[in-house]
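We modelled the chain as a single entity of 814 amino acids. Its sequence is:
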Amino acid sequence: MSAGWMTIEQFTALEGLLHQFAKTQSQLQSFFGLGTLLLCVLQPDHPAKDNSAKDNSAKETASPHPIALPDGLRQSDLLKIVLLCPDWQAVMGWSVQGLKQQNWFDLVHPEDVFATQSQFRSLLHSLPPQPHCQFETRMRHADGSERRFSWRFVLGKDGLLYGSATQLQLEPLQPQPSAKLVQQRLERERLLTTISQRIRQTLDLSKVLETTVEEVRDFLQSDRVVIFQFAPDWNGQVVVESVRPGCSSILYRKIYDPCFKHLWHEPYLEGRIHQIEDIDRADLHPCYRELLVQLNVRANLVVPILQNNLQPDLQNHAQLLPQQNRLWGLLIAHQCDASRQWQQEDVSLLIQLACQVAVAIQQSELYQQVSQLNTTLEFQVQQRTAQLQQAFEFEATLKRITDKVRDSLDEAQILQTAVRELTLAMGISSCDTGIYSHQHQLSTIAYEYIQGTVPVAQGRIVSVEGFPEYYQPLLRGEYLQFCWHNAIYVIGSPVRALANQFVVLACPIIDDQGVLGDLWLYKESDGVYEEQEIRLVQQVANQCAIAIRQARLYQAAQAQVIELERLNYLKDDFLSTISHELRTPVANIKMAAELLEIHLHQLQLLGEGTAIDRHFEILKQETHREINLIDDLLDLSRLDANTEPLLLTTIDPGSWIRYVAEPFIERAQRHQQTLELHIPDHPEGSASHRLPPLTTDLTDLERIVTELLDNACKYTPPHETIALSVSQLLDGPALQISVCNSGVEIPPDEQTRIFDKFYRIPNHDPWKYSGVGLGLALVKRLVQRLDATIQIKSGNRHTTFLLTVPLDLQVTNA
């Protein structure tokens, strides 16, 4: 409906709407009482915050007779006149046009504004909304006199208020309010203000409710005022009470009214006010009358305490959506000794107080919910913090055990560390580890750590077959936990003579090759092991399995090493012994061959190129080869024994190298090879380029250089070059001797093995190249004896041996 003034057609439509509540004019007059019928349409005014001051100013300026609103009247409760019937001018003397868009409360007598305001507030703001309101009030005539009317207002679906009124008294009245009435109104305002302030100032619901019943009983001068709270089954209890001395108390009394659910629940939920002036004259249900008699009630006034149920908005979680009203309880005033006629002011007061109490209850419940949520959240935070702390401690425990597994190969040390760390980290009574036999028939408790009342069982042996309920899951790789307070006996001796009940967690120590043992943990409580604890034990069991397997592999490897060392010692001892035993026979063979050669020359059987010459030459070569082999073996034995002292000699390295290389020059030429010497101190060179003197064991050094040149001549193909170089190192007092031959390479995977005894490169023909693989092994031992170093470099068809010898062996040893 528009906000303009109504035409005849619009007013006719309004009359039709009002006549929906009463079919005829006579019915309307019968309903409201005889008198002139006035009609009006009012619009609740809800100005925006930013324009409130401006709108209020405009309203006060436009009002024909502006009046000050009493304390407690809100700006949002002002009512704007939208439509009036033409009879207004005849009855009230005001021009219909003059009242356009004015505040309806400006026409109400100042003393009746608050009561009228309360009626409209109940209609507009009550929960649940009231369908209509009816009240009496005095209206101001244009000549300053008063008229008394009975008003009935209905709230339309369009938000407008449709009202009709009948004049109760045709003659103008100018009653003067009595001092008692003024005092009651002031007391009511004070009471409402006190309750409102208490609700705003405290979240203690009990204090708010106690203050409410005390103030209400004092204001109404009633015998008893209580607040009754419903239970889910619609029984309930009196939770707060104010009672006159001498009147019986019903505080905390549980009340069961069998008639309530089907007679009073729905009316109260709709906001019905129930008042009884005298139970003897009232038409009451027998069960309700009996209840009032039991409570010593003669008259009562009952106002429902209604709350909005709120739930989160699924579209906007920051908002709450109102749901169906909830009947929390009742605010009740009792008159016990006599009947009482309840005044409209009494009813209005209790309605407003019930709204205030509902706000206080909902505010307290929300606070309790928030407090509970905060408590729950704090508990969850503490619980999560404890879980994180436990996880951190478990991670540290696992790291310590893992580090021990990585740093040690001692099975005993690792397993003892594991059971100790688990016991301390998990705060349990004991932890032990059992090691299974090879056929999984026996379990030996090898290691344990105890910090509680668990008896010692280390060293005990348990039969796996005797306790299938425990060991069959473990042999399948499954963990299990159970309560245990009985002892396991092995041949009459208890493994664990437990006096208390323990929660046991048994976890297998298993790897990809099978079950090696188990971990048993004992906790003296009724709880169970949490998932995080079980996961830690499984991870530790995995580390124990790795440790056991590593330790056993290491032990096997150590046993093999010891056995190999023993065999190597036996071999060396055999070779040393056999070398000594063979040296004399071979020396005799050589001497006999030399004597035989002399006789054959005397008989002129040699030197003629016959078969005897060839056979005799083979005899001499093989005899020489066997003597060299025996000498090499004896030299190695002597070097391993390290019993001979060094015989130091100072030499000129340049001259000495030429002397050593001289026999190999002719040998290289015979094999179509080229032997090059690179010596800085050639006689034609300047003195500044000469090599410094060298102090060393000349015999050992000569043997090293001879072996390197012999290998070079032996393996260098024809038409290739052998280079022998000598130079002084710039970064230290040392001399470097290099033997390099072209046309041959040594594979990288063979370079680290060529210094081993009896090793020969597989792709070389052993029949083409004589030797048994002792030359370079002897070189390595001699290099170590001289505190020297030797390196090999091979690539691009070149192989080079680099020998670094200290210039002064005595200085180097010092």
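As a brief sanity check on the tokenised model: The longest strand covers residues 320-335. DSSP finds 20 helices and 26 strands in the chain.
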